[in-house]
Amino acid sequence: MSSPASHDPVRAWAESGIPHLTGRPDGPPLIPPGHAAARARELTDWIRTASAGAVDVDGAALLGERAALTGHRRQGDLTPGGSGRLLPASDGWVAVSCARPDDPLLLGALIESEVTEDDHWPKVAAWLAGHSRADFDERAALLGIAGGGVAHGAAIADAARDALRPNGVPRPVDGLLVVDFSALWAGPLCAHLLGLAGARVVKVETPQRPDGARRGNQDFYRLLHDGHESAVLDPSIAAEREALHRLVAAADIVIEASRPRALRGFGLRAEDFVANGITWLSITAAGRDSHRIGFGDDIAASAGLVAADDAGPMFVGDAIADPLAGLTAAALAMCEPGNGTLWDISMRATVASTLGGQPSPPTHRDGDQWVVDTGSGTVPLDPPRARAGGGGTR
Predict the structure, then answer these.
(1) What is the rounded CA–CA span in Å between residue 381 and residue 23?
(2) Which of 31, 104, 225, 242 is the least buried, fewest Cβ under 10 Å from its Cβ?
(3) Mind listing the pLDDT tens digit for each residue in 181-198?
(4) CA 178, 181, 183, 189: dihedral to nearest 10 degrees?
(5) DSSP string, 36-102
(6) CB-side exposure of 109: number of CA atoms within 13 Å?
(7) What is the pTM of this model?
(8) What ranges does the record give for the region Disordered, renumbered to this chain (predicted)?
(9) How many other CB atoms are there within 10 angstroms of residue 236's CB atom?
């Protein structure tokens, strides 16, 4: 079990590596607001207990694990990977991602103007200057653009109402069958932790839509998928569609990280399988009833998790909504009773629920080391680190 001191919000942030990913490129690392890193440690405490110690990881460190392998660093109002930006609207700020090949075309549709890969950001910025965050949110949801207006004040508390946290009695998952339909980071992290706890994990992809993370950092992909089985099934082929249904029917836990209509298009309705006793983990940008999509960076910023200076807001960490949602999903899967439960995990709500509390303290140099004063001592700001295994290196 983590010590009480390790759950201090400032200490948890300092030891997570996230400050190295937060701030201006030419400025100091910053302690983010809220207590997401301490929440991550609470979640891994739950997972450690449920797995009888089989899963012994530091939730705070998991938040920066991908950046430790990719080498990404802080870029202020750009995401560490460079595909997203924070831009001013007429009444605040908007976080926008442009990570997919078709995103420039979608951004052109947003602003009703032809754009190219070279000029889409200036044109979007000019459009946003004359439109509100609500204008952007409405059009982005209709067009399938990843992004959202940055929440503040009462809007953060409102978003946090849908957050889920584990409660009751932890349950073991060793020997259970997990069918994982997810991609990228949040769902695969959940599946990874359940696999470490002894579950059998089968990753399901279609030929048309393989996991996009396969094209990313290979050490990170192997780290999350080591030891899992793979099934590539085409629902347009009758025999493979039937095989897909049989696999889900045999599952104890299903992980879904897309809007519900995606699996419903394959004839898979979560409610039907939950009625038969399956635990269904549904991870979405803003809940199953929302049409919004998003990536970890823009979701976290839109929930209100941003650092700020006189020049404006900055992204916190590297797609931090992803690992926080993945940890939450894994802990919820390890709640008793687990069977026959549909967990509706909103990534935006999960992040929003970690905000509030004391202002973030400043950081300063002590020789060659950046440090922060927690109030009970000075703590060095460690860089992000990754666990060894599955191709990953420290």
Answers:
(1) 13
(2) 242
(3) 999 999 999 999 999 999
(4) -20
(5) HHHHHHHHHHHHHHHTTTS----HHHHTTHHHHHH-----TTB-TTSSEEEEEETTEEEEEE--STT
(6) 12
(7) 0.95
(8) 353-394
(9) 11
